[in-house]
Specification:
By secondary structure, this protein is mostly beta strands. It is about 15% helix and about 40% strand. Strand 6 and strand 7 form a beta hairpin.
């Protein structure tokens, strides 16, 4: 009897646990379905758009949403923006890039005016409930449009085959003007920078195409082509950018000869380009 009784009690306990399990599971599901607001971030602005991220917990059923509205600072009228996009641990793998998105909302407000303050309002809602802050209102200014400054020095750049009269100071190839010297091949930046904040490089019309199989102006060398990249490493300032622009006497065309990265400004800030045509390369920066 004792063994039978123990066996029966064990079955009762097991059945009781099974009966209770759906209740506990449902409780956890309800908790995971509710959204919990966490950190809110405003991303660095562009000239005409603003980006935002709102990290969350929960909302496993993805029925939460964030409504967006905005207005110019001081205006009484709110405009409706696109709702934020829902992201939830999507995994991206491409070559060496390996990234998993957070549990979050993200999105942008578009078609704004440069150098203007905007009030931006974000309202988090969820039929299952919201824990934490439901509304975020932030004020963000779009970036101002950079412009050439007055008072800087002006340098003139010509293509290698230019035959006409040149304006001084004149240089053959962009890198010879940008730096204190340059080889015959435009992918060398072994000299210190010539340009300073506020300076203007006027690029005259013609074709600028580096011979990526020629090193230092000599004959073919090495076993592989050079990268053919213009490494621009000198920084301007917000009010005094370094300007590289068309001189106005024809189209200046920079041909990458099939290279990956033609202009690289990752080591510099406030380099301003205007009226330049680039072609035959994969990556613009």
């Amino acid at each position: 009897m004792s063994k039978t009784g123990k066996h029966w009690l064990g079955q009762c306990g097991f059945m009781a646990a099974l009966a209770a399990a759906p209740i506990m599971t449902a409780g956890r599901a309800r908790a995971a379905a509710k959204v919990t607001a966490k950190e809110f971030y405003a991303e660095p602005p562009t000239l005409i758009s603003l980006g935002f991220e709102w990290q969350i917990d929960g909302d496993d059923n993805h029925n939460a949403s964030v409504a967006v509205s905005y207005r110019k600072k001081g205006s009484a009228i709110w405009k409706t923006g696109l709702p934020l996009m829902r992201l939830d641990h999507e995994h991206i793998t491409e070559n060496a890039f390996n990234y998993t998105t957070p549990n979050m909302f993200a999105g942008s407000i578009f078609d704004l005016e440069p150098d203007t303050e905007y009030e931006c309002r974000f309202v988090l809602s969820d039929p299952d409930g919201v824990e934490g802050r439901k509304v975020n209102v932030v004020t963000v200014r779009t970036r101002f449009e950079p412009k050439p400054a007055a008072g800087g020095r002006t340098y003139h750049v010509y293509p290698p085959d230019y035959k006409g009269q040149k304006q001084e100071p004149a240089f053959t190839g962009l890198m010879a003007a940008y730096y204190l010297g340059g080889s015959h091949s435009d992918n060398f930046n072994t000299y210190g920078p010539r340009v300073q904040p506020g300076d203007i490089i006027l690029v005259h019309g013609g074709l600028y195409k580096d011979d990526r199989f020629r090193y230092g102006g000599g004959g073919p060398g090495g076993t592989a082509p050079s990268d053919g990249t213009y490494y621009l490493t000198q920084s301007g300032t917000p009010k005094k950018p370094i300007v590289i622009k068309a001189a106005g006497d024809g189209e200046p065309i920079f041909d990458g000869d099939g290279n990956f990265n033609l202009f690289n400004v990752m080591a510099a800030n406030y380099n301003y380009f205007e009226g330049i045509t680039v072609r035959n390369h994969s990556c613009p920066n």
